[in-house]
Amino acid sequence: MDWDGYRLVLDLGYATLPRLLGHWPDGAVDAVVITHEHPDHCVDLHGLFRMRFYGRPGGPRLPLYCPPGVLDRLGGLEPDVDLHAVFDLHPLPGSYRVGPFDLTGLSLPHFVPNAGIRIEADGIAVAYSGDTGPAPALAELGRGADLFIVEATDHDGETSRPTRNLMTSTEAGLWARRAGARRLMLTHFWPGNDRAAAVAAAQVEFEGTVLAAQEGLTLMLGT
Ligand SMILES: [Zn+2]
Fold first, then answer.
1. CA 132 to ligand 1 centroid distance, Å
2. I need a labelling partner for 135 at 20 to 30 A (CA). Which of 9, 28, 113, 184 fits?
3. How far, in Å, from the CA of 111 to the mean position of ligand 1?
4. How many CA atoms lie within 13 A of 123 on its CB side?
């Protein structure tokens, strides 16, 4: 996310770092926010760490907002170096001022601690569920958001599980409606899922614009 030149990156899953470097070749982000410790959300933080640690030794520390387990995972890959040499850690959930943004992380149900993220600037809000089961906090997280990015794993049998840690596209639409969001973007598609079918399922519950996350997609906010 780029706002008046301030660059905030939200989750760094598999192969996201090359795409980030395609936008910003020097990896010069101003802040990183990670929702939870699962590798599909944080594994490329390791590559960014190495760029900073070996490429810019002694450079300014990078603000990192995440649940504590994220740094534990990274520490497993880098047991012999001090991660704090690169990262200025701020634990989630919590609320912070991050450059031009007000950032809020709310706890949401998942297999591991997961922080849903809300970012606001100039009255425009973007919210992102991370991975989550259905939860009332989703309506708070995405309240009136210009863009509500919600996971729609559509895993077989999901709605009949005794404990819910993921959602369907239909549920994503339901929570976007309850939040009063303007636009919904579905993400976290299970391999092989039909993204057009996911959009159609969400549209049954949500009357606003429904988008499917796509690799390389760029969106303007507040337009
Ligand atoms: Zn997860």
1. 8
2. 9
3. 7
4. 2
State pLDDT tens for residues 103-148: 999 999 999 999 999 999 999 999 999 999 999 999 999 999 999 9
Is-contact 187 160, C-beta < 8 A?
Answer: no
Which three-class secondary structure state does DSSP give residue 217? coil
Instruction: State the distance from the centre of ligand 1 to the C-alpha of 42, rounded, in angstroms.
Output: 10
Q: What spacing in Å lies between the alpha carbon of 79 and ligand 1's midpoint?
A: 23
Task: Pick the closest to residue 172 from 194, 195, 154 (CA basis).
Answer: 154
Residue 99 region by backbone torsions, left for phi larger than 0, else alpha for psi between -120 and 50, else beta: left
* Rounded Cα gap, residues 38 and 166, in angstroms: 13
Q: How far is the CA of 48 from the centre of ligand 1 (A)?
A: 20
CA of 218 to the centre of ligand 1 (A): 24
Check: CB of residue 168 under 8 Å from CB of residue 159: yes
Q: 8, 1 in Cβ contact below 8 A?
A: yes
pTM assigned to the model:
0.96
Q: Any idea of the CA torsion for 67, 18, 189, 130, to the nearest 10 degrees?
A: 20
Cα 209 to chain centroid distance, Å, stands at 20
Q: For residue 110, how far is its CA from the centre of ligand 1 (angstroms)?
A: 7
Question: Span 72-86, mean pLDDT?
Answer: 95
